[in-house]
């Protein structure tokens, strides 16, 4: 199949081409006029090009105000003989005409264009208004007629019928030009680009005063263009040795003979194309702050605004810091992040400050850089206006050197805020916030330095890639103060999250301060597949970062399951956020069938137990991540867990039976259904919020049963005791 995209080319820049197409899609002729389509349905066109011709006619109808008193449309299909498909007075609306065009059936036959033109000369425009309104004939053909067309075409023009010839497939342009009205370059169209052809059609009608201009500022412009015809030509490939006979008996002579091939080539036909061009609403650059303007027709537009902008249609800043702080950005400028990473952080910093700071908004902001050494080129509070601050940030230079984040934190804790009003005893009640921007592992210890900085009252926020998550949590001391990005664009998307984190220093910590035993049950069966399993693993890793991991606060265990359940790690084995994240990264994919019921039984009997780390008097929850397979057998084990005081939260991805899932979750409040694995992150906050609510409720000291060997737990004032049968000890352990 040969592409027909470049059969007609307008020699204009891309911006003009876009404007021509936009104008073509917005035009609407509302004059009183009769339009008759003469559609080639012969075998030379073929069924594929016939369908494209129908599509072109539908698009051309979009530019016509079709109703009985304005534009009327009819159609004749021709091949060996002409056939009236529908007269001009058949349909009163655009939708009816387009629907009838869609139902037109390809007939096939020879290309008797001349016979079709004689039919119109004899019958006129069927259903038309007898030349009391302008008559327009639109011929759609490849121009490969098998009869005479010159005489009937000339007679049609003498009757003042405006004739457009539309090329289809690989047209013969000279024959189409002979069919079309004069000047031919304005009445010959190409169906390959419907929007461009509609513009051409409308521009000619405007010049002929049949239709009015689409807008006062629009104008018709002339462009050089080129049309191509696909021809079969005889090509000399070369001379080759051959043998020739002679008049002499038994005599043969050797010589060189020419060798020819037949090949298809494009023949170029230079021409002029006339198109209507209208002013684009985006020409005035209405979008501010890096927004991208997208035009909608001739007079409407909208702006695609960067994150942090969009307070109005022109991308005004929509974020603002709803708190007063002394803010210091600590930027990694070491060789580990490279010049590209440093420039990325600079761009992020400028975009963030432009989004949250008004033109004259006072804010105490500073910037420090570090590698082997630490320097503060922009002191906190040095600039009170955005322009001066942006200029100073732009002047920051990449330095290279070792990544000594620990040393930078020591230095900032002692010298980072020395010039602020807080240290000048003018205003000592503003919180001091440090935002660490790094993408390279520290080459010196950070734990002691970060603890010292926090002890000095600094509120630390860390921003970096996922491989730095554990280190950033060690720096900030709180997973909620860690922002992880996956790509340069994702970094810019974190602007609202940073704004929220900066003003969260006084907000309650929720789950951070609550004791909780939490177990994730992750479907690792073949039904989920390895790729989706990795997304489930990432969800667990992200969700776990909301909790402060220790034996005194939150314990997390993890079970993966296929046909059998496997404990990846128990509740009491991971005692820090960093060790937990490392263990989650090593989760195995099992494959096989899915048995969530056996996973819940395994959690009930071998994970949420006192001898495996579950703590009496601490609230407990299980979060099951599944694709919904095999859930019919999970309702009974889930009920056992709930009877033992353990919340069961079900997160299902894809299609599954809701009534079965409700029996497992026990309540709609503990059931979350997402359509795809990509949507998992959207429900993370909801799940964490529900778990945190459960963690704050009073816990039953006897659930799960702390008594071993089938001892009976009995609640008493402020505690419990175990009634043992055949065993002894506080928990019937001996």
From TrEMBL:
UniProt key word Transmembrane: no
Superkingdom, natural source: Eukaryota
Domain annotation VWFA: ranges: 34-205, 326-502, 517-691
Stretches assigned to the EGF-like domain: 279-316, 698-733
Keywords: Disulfide bond, EGF-like domain, Repeat, Secreted, Signal
Pfam families per the UniProt record, alphabetical: EGF, VWA
Gene Ontology molecular function, alphabetical: identical protein binding
Keyword check for Secreted: yes
PROSITE patterns: EGF_2, EGF_3, VWFA
Gene Ontology CC annotation, any one: basement membrane
InterPro entries assigned to the protein according to its UniProt record, in alphabetical order: ECM_Assembly_Org, EGF, VWF_A, vWFA_dom_sf
Compartments where found: Secreted
Gene Ontology biological process terms from the UniProt entry: calcium-independent cell-matrix adhesion
Subunit structure: Forms monomers and multimers.
This protein's name: von Willebrand factor A domain-containing protein 2
This protein's encoding gene: Vwa2
């Amino acid at each position: 199949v040969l592409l027909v995209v470049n059969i007609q080319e307008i020699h204009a820049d891309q911006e003009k081409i876009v404007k021509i197409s936009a104008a073509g899609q917005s035009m609407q002729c509302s004059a009183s006029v009769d339009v008759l389509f003469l559609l080639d349905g012969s075998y030379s066109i073929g069924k594929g090009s016939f369908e494209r011709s129908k599509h072109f006619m539908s698009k051309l109808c979009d530019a016509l105000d079709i109703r009985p008193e304005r534009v009327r449309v009819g159609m004749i299909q021709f091949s060996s003989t002409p056939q009236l498909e529908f007269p001009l007075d058949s349909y009163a609306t655009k939708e009816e005409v387009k629907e009838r065009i869609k139902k037109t059936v390809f007939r096939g036959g020879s290309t008797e264009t001349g016979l079709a033109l004689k039919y119109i000369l004899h019958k006129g425009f069927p259903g038309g208004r007898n030349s009391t309104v302008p008559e327009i004939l639109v011929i759609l053909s490849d121009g490969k007629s098998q009869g005479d067309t010159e005489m009937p075409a000339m007679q049609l023009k003498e009757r003042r019928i405006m004739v457009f010839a539309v090329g289809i497939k690989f047209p013969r342009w000279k024959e189409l030009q002979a069919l079309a009205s004069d000047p031919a370059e304005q009445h010959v169209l190409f169906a390959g680009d419907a929007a461009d052809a509609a513009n051409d059609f409308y521009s000619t009608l405007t010049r002929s005063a049949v239709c009015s201009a689409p807008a006062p500022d629009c104008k018709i412009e002339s462009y050089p263009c080129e049309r191509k015809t696909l021809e079969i030509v005889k090509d000399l490939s070369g001379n080759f040795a051959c043998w020739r006979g002679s008049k002499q008996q038994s005599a043969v002579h050797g010589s060189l003979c020419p060798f020819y091939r037949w090949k298809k080539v494009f023949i170029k036909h230079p021409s002029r194309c006339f198109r209507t061009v209208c002013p684009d609403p985006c020409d005035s650059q209405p979008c501010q702050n890096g927004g991208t303007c997208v035009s909608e027709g001739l007079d409407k537009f909208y702006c695609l605004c960067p994150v942090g902008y969009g307070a109005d249609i022109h991308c005004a800043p929509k974020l603002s810091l709803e708190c007063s702080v002394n803010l210091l950005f600590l930027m990694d400028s070491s060789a580990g992040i490279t010049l590209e990473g440093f420039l990325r952080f600079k761009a992020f910093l400028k975009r963030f400050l432009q989004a949250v700071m008004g033109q004259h908004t006072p804010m105490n902001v500073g910037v420090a850089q570090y590698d082997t050494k630490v320097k503060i080129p922009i002191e906190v509070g040095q600039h009170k206006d955005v322009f001066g601050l942006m200029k100073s940030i732009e002047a920051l230079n990449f330095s290279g050197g070792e990544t000594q984040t620990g040393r930078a934190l020591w230095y900032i804790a002692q010298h980072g805020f020395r010039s602020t009003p807080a240290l000048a005893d003018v205003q000592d009640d503003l919180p001091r916030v440090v935002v660490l921007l790094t993408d390279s592992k520290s080459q010196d210890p950070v734990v002691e330095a970060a603890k010292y900085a926090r002890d000095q009252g600094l509120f630390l926020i860390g921003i970096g890639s996922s491989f730095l998550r554990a280190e950033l949590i060690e720096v900030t001391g709180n997973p909620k103060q860690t922002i992880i990005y996956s790509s340069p664009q994702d970094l810019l998307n974190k602007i609202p999250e940073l704004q929220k984190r900066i003003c969260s220093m006084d907000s309650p910590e929720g789950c951070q301060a609550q004791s909780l035993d939490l177990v994730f049950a992750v479907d690792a069966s073949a039904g989920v597949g390895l790729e989706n399993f990795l997304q489930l693993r990432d969800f667990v890793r992200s969700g776990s970062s909301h909790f402060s991991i220790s034996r005194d606060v939150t314990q997390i265990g993890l079970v993966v399951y296929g046909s059998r359940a496997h404990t990846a790690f128990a509740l009491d084995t991971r005692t820090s956020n960093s060790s937990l994240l490392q263990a989650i990264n090593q989760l195995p994919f099992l494959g096989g069938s899915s048995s969530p019921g056996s996973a819940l039984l395994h959690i009930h009997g071998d994970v949420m137990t006192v001898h495996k780390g579950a703590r009496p008097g601490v609230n407990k929850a299980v979060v099951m991540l599944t694709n919904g397979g095999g859930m019919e057998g999970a309702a009974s084990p889930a009920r056992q867990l709930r009877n033992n005081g353990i919340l069961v939260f079900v997160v299902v991805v894809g299609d599954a039976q809701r009534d079965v899932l409700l029996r497992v979750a026990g309540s709609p409040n503990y059931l979350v259904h997402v359509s795809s694995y990509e949507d998992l992150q959207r429900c993370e906050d909801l799940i964490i919020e529900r778990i945190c609510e459960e963690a704050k409720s009073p816990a039953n000291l006897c659930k799960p049963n702390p008594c071993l060997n089938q001892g009976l737990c009995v609640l008493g004032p402020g505690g419990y005791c175990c009634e043992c049968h055949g065993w002894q000890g506080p928990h019937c352990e001996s």
